């Protein structure tokens, strides 16, 4: 029998095709950390029952003070979190709709399955909420509640109020009592990162201009987030136009108005899919 | 230092770039290159894991392996061997997982199952996994990559660092052994 189909799928081999069909559901759910719908059916029923049990137990055993987190927390069918010594917090909610962890202090390393639907897994810190969009990341909270997320793979969002900050693979972002900061790639020049931090510490047009002046084409992530901020949208827009040119069908005026369609077009123009 | 534009490259160029080049860039901190490695090698890593641990563990450990790899990329001496390096990490991760579970059986035994009249697809799948896992390592990993994770021969060769001829031999001999065992068991 020819092995061509087995080798490169040319020709036919009914045995191999039948095996492929049988085993396909066991394949890695996604090659890249992209969102996918959760498992329906029996799994959902089991999860709902488990959630009810958790809710009942939580109502009786709800901790008042943040306690030391265990070295590892498993969230079945979602992923797991490893904690570094000293991490304090608690599991707030665990249901099919949402898994919510509170991190009051310390460092966690979250690994959330590629199959998990986006936003299901969330970590609340004293100053922001870190929302999983399918990824592996590290989140640290210091004694003042300031939070820093570094994304190894995939992307997360910092959400506070109506504002969302997107942090993709290889980028980090800080958040403080002032709110979520501005993300930047870890591989950017130290001067650029320092300028971003200075802006986050005390935002001003002058500091934004400093960031823009140091930005290179690849620092578009930071500049795009300036477009969300009415105070510095012009700085971000001018820098992006200088480095990337305007996207087709987008005007400077629409960008300065922070028109949602214009900002979305900018994202696509810059190569982002979130 | 030059930092390439990560997401743009992920969308366009990394599929064609040699793995060694991606590994070099990832080792130098290029996050797009690391994501490219994930795209290109996650399925083979998953297959190596699935050859040893149960499916839910394989899925989770795939991410774990890439997390460890990200932390240890600077220790990768030969970028051309990034695939085998990741696969070795996957084998170690599987061993750790089996130890932590006390080497309990991953699925029900064939004997238990064969006593059952009912053969749902899930059961057939579990039985097939056991048959593949019972093959010699070179065959079982290669067949997992081909039959479960959908890599063709050239892609397996690229991921494993083996020659096309070696992969083809592993696929053919592994499939031959698998056919033989399935026939013995009366599979249609």
CATH architecture of the largest domain in chain B: Orthogonal Bundle
At the first level of CATH, what is the class of the largest domain in chain B? Answer: Mainly Alpha
From the alpha carbons, calculate the radius of gyration of chain A and give it in angstroms: 22 Å
CATH homologous superfamily caption of the largest domain in chain B: RNA polymerase sigma factor, region 2, helix turn helix motif
| Contiguous helical run count of chain A | 9
**Helix proportion of chain B:** over 70%
Query: What's the CATH topology name of the largest domain in chain B?
Result: Rna Polymerase Sigma Factor, Chain: A
What does this molecule look like?
The complex is a heterodimer of chains A (274) and B (188). Chain A has 2 domains: 32-181, Jelly Rolls (Sandwich), CATH 2.60.120; 183-274. In chain A, strands 1, 2, 3, 4, 5, 6, 7, 8, 9, 10, 11, 12, 13 and 14 form a 14-stranded mixed β-sheet that branches. Chain A is flat and about 70 Å long. Chain A starts with a helix and ends in a 5-residue tail after the last helix. Chain A has helices at residues 4-8, 14-23, 42-61, 190-201, 205-214, 220-226, 233-244, 252-256, 260-269; strands spanning 67-68, 72-75, 79-83, 88-94, 99-112, 121-124, 129-132, 136-141, 147-153, 155-160, 163-168, 171-176, 179-180, 184-185. Chain A is of the alpha+beta class. With 188 residues, chain B is mainly α. Chain B folds into 2 domains: 1-106, RNA polymerase sigma factor, region 2, helix turn helix motif (Rna Polymerase Sigma Factor, Chain: A, Orthogonal Bundle), CATH 1.10.1740; 108-188, Arc Repressor Mutant, subunit A, CATH 1.10.10. Chain B has helices at 6-12, 19-27, 31-50, 55-72, 82-100, 110-114, 121-133, 137-148, 153-160, 164-184. In chain B, helix 3 packs across helix 5. The longest helix of chain B has 21 residues, at 164-184. The model of chain B is unreliable at 1-12 and 105-118 (pLDDT under 50). Chains A and B meet through helix 1, helix 2 and strand 5 of A and helix 1, helix 3, helix 4, helix 7 and helix 8 of B.
């Amino acid at each position: 029998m020819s092995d061509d189909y087995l080798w490169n799928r040319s020709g036919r081999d009914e045995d191999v095709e039948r095996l492929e069909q049988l085993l396909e559901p066991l394949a890695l759910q996604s090659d890249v950390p992209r969102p996918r719908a959760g498992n329906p059916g029996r799994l959902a029923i089991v999860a709902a029952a488990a959630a009810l049990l958790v809710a009942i137990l939580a109502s009786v055993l709800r901790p008042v003070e943040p306690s030391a987190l265990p070295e590892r927390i498993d969230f079945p069918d979602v992923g797991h979190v490893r904690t570094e010594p000293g991490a304090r917090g608690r599991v707030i909610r665990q249901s099919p709709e949402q898994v919510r962890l509170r991190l009051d202090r310390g460092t966690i390393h979250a690994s959330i399955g590629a199959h998990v639907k986006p936003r299901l897994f969330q970590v609340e810190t004293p100053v922001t909420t870190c929302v999983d969009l399918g990824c592996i990341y590290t989140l640290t909270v210091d004694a003042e509640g300031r939070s820093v997320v570094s994304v190894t793979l995939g992307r997360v969002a910092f959400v506070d109020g109506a504002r969302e900050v997107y942090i993709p693979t290889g980028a980090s972002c800080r958040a403080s009592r002032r709110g979520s900061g501005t993300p930047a790639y870890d591989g950017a020049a130290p001067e650029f990162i320092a300028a971003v931090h200075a802006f986050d510490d005390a935002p001003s047009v002058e500091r934004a201009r400093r960031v823009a002046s140091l930005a290179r084409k690849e620092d578009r992530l930071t500049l795009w987030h300036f477009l969300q901020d009415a105070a510095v949208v012009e700085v971000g827009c001018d820098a992006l136009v200088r480095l990337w040119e305007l996207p087709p069908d987008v005007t400077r005026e629409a960008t300065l108005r922070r028109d949602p369609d214009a900002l979305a077009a900018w994202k696509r123009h810059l190569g982002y899919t979130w | 230092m030059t930092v390439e534009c990560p997401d743009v490259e992920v969308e366009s160029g990394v599929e064609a770039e040699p793995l060694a080049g991606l590994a070099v860039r990832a080792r130098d901190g290029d996050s797009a290159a690391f994501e490219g490695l994930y795209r290109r090698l996650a399925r083979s890593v998953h297959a190596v894991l699935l050859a040893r641990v149960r499916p839910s563990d394989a899925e989770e450990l795939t991410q774990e392996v890439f997390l460890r790899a990200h932390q240890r990329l600077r220790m990768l001496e030969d970028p051309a061997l990034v695939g085998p390096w990741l696969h070795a990490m996957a084998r170690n991760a599987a061993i750790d997982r089996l130890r932590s579970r006390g080497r309990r059986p991953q699925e029900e035994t064939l004997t238990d199952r064969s006593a059952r009249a009912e053969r749902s697809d899930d059961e057939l799948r579990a039985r097939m996994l056991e048959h593949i896992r019972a093959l010699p390592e070179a065959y079982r990993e290669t067949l997992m990559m081909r039959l479960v994770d959908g890599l063709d021969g050239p892609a397996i060769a690229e991921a494993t660092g083996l020659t096309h001829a070696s992969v083809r031999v592993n696929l053919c001999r592994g499939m031959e052994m698998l056919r033989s065992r399935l026939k013995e068991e009366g599979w249609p």
